[in-house]
Each structure stands twice: as structure tokens, then as C-alpha cells.
Amino acid sequence: MIAAVIVIVVVLVVLGLTAAGASIRVLREYERGVVFRLGRLMNARGPGLILLTPTIDRMVRVSLRTVTLAIPPQETITRDNIPVRVTAVAYYRVVDATKAIIEVESFSSATMQIAQTSLRSVLGGAELDTLLSERERLNEALQHVIDAQTEPWGIKVTAVEIKDVEIPERMQHAIARQAEAERERRAKIINAEGESQAAAKLAEAADVIGENPVTLQLRYLQTLREIGATQNSTVVFPMPIDLVKPVLDAVSQGSKPGVDQQASSLDQQPRSLEPGPPDPLGLQLQEATGAPRADWPSREAGD
Known about the structure:
By secondary structure, the chain is α+β, with helices and mostly antiparallel strands.
């Protein structure tokens, strides 16, 4: 009899402990519990110790921490008809545990689907240059679009970041050529601006030298000093233009001293009309042809 009573007591204790374990819940600081009693929503509880009625109450745990949602690669076509493949990541958290359980079956899966469709929609309305250069603006647009659709579910999308943008290889080559052409254009503009500034400075220097001729002489001496400091085998010696100008004027007018005097002295010399020494080559030609030479007297006249 006593043994049977002991067995009954032990069974009751075990059942009591089991019931107590089933009715006691501990929620952490970042957790909330949505309690249903006989299928009817009661309220959201936590954090701390929660007591439930066994077999009557049911509790669903919801984490309030920020969740990282990796969006799978999405293929879309930009507004300028260029196919791209984009990967992104979204960050969201539950701000209303009751709505997250009541309004949608699975808030994490629903947020994923909304993020994918919004990513294709927003990026499809942008051009490739905008997608590559204005990611910050596109990230904000994605965050607002996704958050507006998940807000009725008690979900707050805090940020969306575009991780990678893949474009066709031919477009990569085209972008590289465009960047190279842009760099060449900027280099030419900078070179032209430098030449323009240098020309302006040279004009100012010419005005200063024109007002003060001594400056030109000082510059001439400085140039000679720089030439003397070089170790080249060939040295170009600059001459002032005032020394070279008379010679250039004389050459341009055709007056060449010395040459004209030599030509006049040759004209003043008397020319001799006497015949020169006999030409052996001429005698041979005369004997071969039988024609008399003009520079020798004929034999009949001599006879």
C-alpha cells in the first residue's frame, strides 16, 4: 500500500514538473513572445519570465535584432538597354512582433521576395553610368521602396547596399576606351591652358624688356653664363641682332665688298689679241679633216 502511494506521488511530481516546465518561458532582452490562447491572439510579452497555461497557451518567439539579408544575384536590363547582373544585401529588423506574426506568414521570406523585385525594378529604370557612379542614391531609393512595402508587416528596412555590378565584357572594353579618351582630352586641355598662360607671361616679359632695354642685356649675360656651364662639345654662341643686321642688309641689297672690286679689276685688264701657242689637238684635227683653223694664218697668206 505504501509503495503504491509513493509511486503515485512520484508520478504526480513528474507530471507537475513537466507541466511547470511547459508553462514557464524565459525571453532574452532582444526577444518578444506573441501569445495565443486557444488560437486567439493575447498580446506580445517579454523580456523575462513568462508563465503560460499548459495545452491552452502557445507562444511564438520573435527576435528584434537586425537581420542581414543576402539578396541573390539579379539579372536586369538598364534603361539604356544594357544587361547587368547585380548582387545586393539588405538589413532589416522587426519593430512590431505582433504584426510580423499576424500580417504575413513568413516575414523573412516575404522581405526577401520584395527585395528581389524592388532591386530589378529600381535598377531597370537607371542608366549604366548612373548605376556605376551613383550607387549611394540608388541604395537610398531601394531602401525607401522596400521599407514602404514591409512597413505594414512591422518590418523596418534600415539599409540596402549594392555589392557588385557585372556587365558584359564588350561593355567593359568600351568603358575602358571611353575613360582613356577622357584622360587624353583632359591632358590636351591642361596642355593648352599651360601654353596660353606661358604665352601671356612671355607677352608680359616682352613689355617689360621693351620698357627697360637693360633687362635684355642682363638676360643676354645670363644666357652666356648658362652656355658656359654646360659640358657639351658643341656650343651655340648667340650674337646680338644689332651686330648681324648690317651684314644681312648688305646681302639682301646685293652689295658684296671685295667681289665687286675683283670683278672691276678683271674688266680693266687689257685683253691680248695675239694668238696663243699652237694646239696639238687642233693640228691633229686639221690634218684629219683638212679644214684650216681660224686662229692660225693660212699658208697662202704666208707664202
